[in-house]
What does this fold into?
Amino acid sequence: MIVMKFGGSSVESAEAIGRVVSIVEARLERRPVVVVSAMGKTTNRLLECARLAVEGGREEALAKLAGLREFHHAESPEEVRGAIDAHFDELAELLRGLSVLGEMTPRSVDAISAFGERMSSLVVAAAFRQRGIAASHLDAREMIVTDDRHTQAAPQYAETYERLAARLPVLAARGVVVMGGFIGATRAGVTSTLGRGGSDFSAAIAGAGIGAEEIQIWTDVDGMLTCDPRVLPGGRRVRVISFAEAAELAYFGAKVLHPSTVLPAVEKQIPVLILNSRRPDVEGTRIVARGAESANPIKSIACKRNITAVSIKSTRMLMAHGFLRRIFEVFDRHETPVDMVTTSEVSVSLTVDNAARLEAIVAELRAFAEVNVQAGQALVALVGDGLGERKGIAGRAFQALNGVNVRMISQGASQLNLSFVIADADVAKAVGLLHAEFFTELDPKVFDVAAREALA
Ligand code: ASP
Ligand code: MG
It folds into this structure.
């Protein structure tokens, strides 16, 4: 059995769903379980309706909902239009309820946003049948058991795996199984969601539960690239990458894969493939438990743009202890995650992505230290397994970056990344220089050398 996950843009229209059906049809002998996201931007549109309803815009919310209903109707096979209508009637009821209450709980957010996947899974299952392919719809809420932390619910693995193992193989033997991603239910049967972008996570959970041969994440890019195409076009596709490297890239802002996806699959050593539903013949990127030996130490360059660097200095702390604790306590109290940290005896530099609470943080830090804040920074990370054991990487990186002002440097404790903080304005230049240094000669086992695009 394999799990094939299709994201929102892969199921955004009847035409796109038609492509999904063809892709799955070509793999029927592998007994696919299909996990789908909501169609197109449905989740955002549902949440927008809910927000309007709560904020007194009942009519506007219902009008937007009617637009969403029309969209679903237009893109659905005849067979499910009745069911789709019933879902929208229920949604309209919920929105009216919200507008009366004038407030929204995480539980009601889940009740509403779950409709996207509840419906897309019905639509996609029907699309298979319309093409003469046996398919059954499985309500993910009967399979994925979660805790009750609504909007960010955590799967209860033992129970979930048990249910998946009991149901999926039986259904998959009879035809394609289609299940919505993102959604689940608490033990009490209340609808919950795994967090935005959670369909990848659902696919990994489903794959882990049935011990799938492979989990395929079908998206709208060819796979992981050697650099972020929004920063530098012309990067190469990475053919094989380790779980650890892929997770590291995701933490640094690569948009292709949700990092949590990795966990359930890693534990069961199930390979995850990233594939392009618009170009299904491209072999994509294979994420495996352990990466292949490669002549190329760096697999990809990731960037996190528009971050803020904070440097904190206190000469009073010379030879004293507790300085780091005092600093991080402040960030913790303001629930602000810190990304990179570099330290010396009396000074600490760190970066934050979310600067919403920074003013209050800085005010507290100033009680015991000198603080300097620099917005408009960027983090550039060279990612590759075992960087700590390779000689000469830092030398090559600094040589390449000659002429770019580097503000902070860190080689992660994970040995997976060598990162720099530079001015955001220098990102394109820096990534171009690093890319030329590390990706001019490519190991064909690890990188796609055939599609040689000129670097812009
Ligand atoms: N539909 C959900 C979202 O937009 C989950 C997903 O697409 O993965 O966040
Ligand atoms: Mg997604």
Q: What stands out?
A: Residues 7-8, 37-38, 43, 116, 181-182, 196-199 surround aspartic acid (ligand 1) (CB under 6 Å). The domain at 300-438 is CATH 3.30.2130.10 (VC0802-like).
